[in-house]
Amino acid sequence: MLEQLRDYFWPRPSPTLPPAPTPVVPRGTRYYVIGDIHGRLDLYDALIAKIEEEIAASRGVEIRIVLLGDLVDRGPDSAGVLVRTREWQAHRNVRVLAGNHEEMFLAAFEKPEALRHFIKHGGRETIMSYGLSAKRIATVPIDELFERLPKVVPTWVRDYIAGFENMIIAGDYVFVHAGIDPELPLDQQKRSDLRWIRDRFLKHEGSLEKVVVHGHTIFEQVTDCGNRIGIDTGAFRSGVLTALVLEGDQRRILQACATGDGQIEVVEGERQR
Questions:
Q1: Contact present, 81 and 44 (Cβ < 8 Å)
Q2: Model confidence over 96-138: pLDDT tens digits?
Q3: Domain 3-10+26-268 has what CATH class?
Q4: Whose CA is closest to 51, among 98, 2, 84?
C-alpha cells in the first residue's frame, strides 16, 4: 500500500549532517510525540492503548505527550479525535500543537470564502463528522452552509482548538507542526511558518538551534536528517500513524498500522541513539 502512494509522499532524503552530540530530553521524562492524526480515530485509539500499556509498566518516569497538530480533516472522524484528546488530557499530560488544518477550520467560521477553501482541503470530512451528509455539503449554497456551520459544530470545539499551542521545547528538541524558518532563532519564529512552512525548512542542510520534530509533510517512513525528524506518515491515506518516543538520549518509534483484514496492529521500531 505504501508503494502505491510513493508519488504522493515527499521523497525521503539521506541524512546530510556530520555527527553531532546526541540530543536529549530532560532527565526523568519520556515524551510520546504523535504525528498528524487527520481524523483517524481508529489508529489514534490503538496508539493510545499501546502508550497507556507502556505507562502502566513504567515507574519513576514523568510522561509527557505531544500531538503535532492536524488532528482534523481528511479522515472520517475529526470530531471523535477532538473528544478523545480532551478525555486523554483529563488524566495525562497531553499538549496539542495547532496545525495548518486547525487554522483553516477556525477561519471557516469567519467568512464564506474561507469555508470554501476549508472544504476543498479536507474540511468536508470534518463537517461530515459533525452530522452533515456529503450530499448536503455539496448542494447547499456556501452562504447557507456558512450560516449553518456554527450550529453544527459546538462552541467548545472552536474554543478548544483556539487554545492549541505553536511550539514546545524539550531539552535539545523543539516540537512544531510544519517546521521553522532556519534563518531565525526560535524566539523569533512566525506563527505562519510554524504551521505552514515547507521547502525553505525541508531543504535546509545546516544545523539548527535544536532538533526539530515536525509533521505536516508526509514521508513514507520516519525521516531523520540530523537537524530535523519528520514523523507524518500520512495516516489518513497510508493507514499508518506514528509516535516518536524520546527518553534520555534514546529514540524509538511506535506505529499504529491498519492491516488488510481491517484490523489495527501497533508495531515498535528499533531503538536509536
A1: yes
A2: 999 999 999 999 999 999 999 999 999 999 999 999 999 999 9
A3: alpha beta
A4: 84
Q: Compute the distance between CA of residue 169 and CA of residue 21 in angstroms, rounded to an integer.
A: 18
CB 14 within 8 A of CB 265: no
Tell me if residue 175 falls in helix, strand or coil. Answer: strand
Check: CB of residue 92 under 8 Å from CB of residue 65: yes
**165-187: buried (b, 16+ CB within 10 Å) or exposed (e) per residue?**
bebbebbbbbbbbbbbbbeeebe
Return the closest-CA partner of residue 242 out of 250, 232, 252: 232
Q: How far is CA 26 from CA 79, 127, 211, in A?
A: 33, 40, 14
Beta bridge partners of 175: 168, 213
Q: pTM of this prediction?
A: 0.91
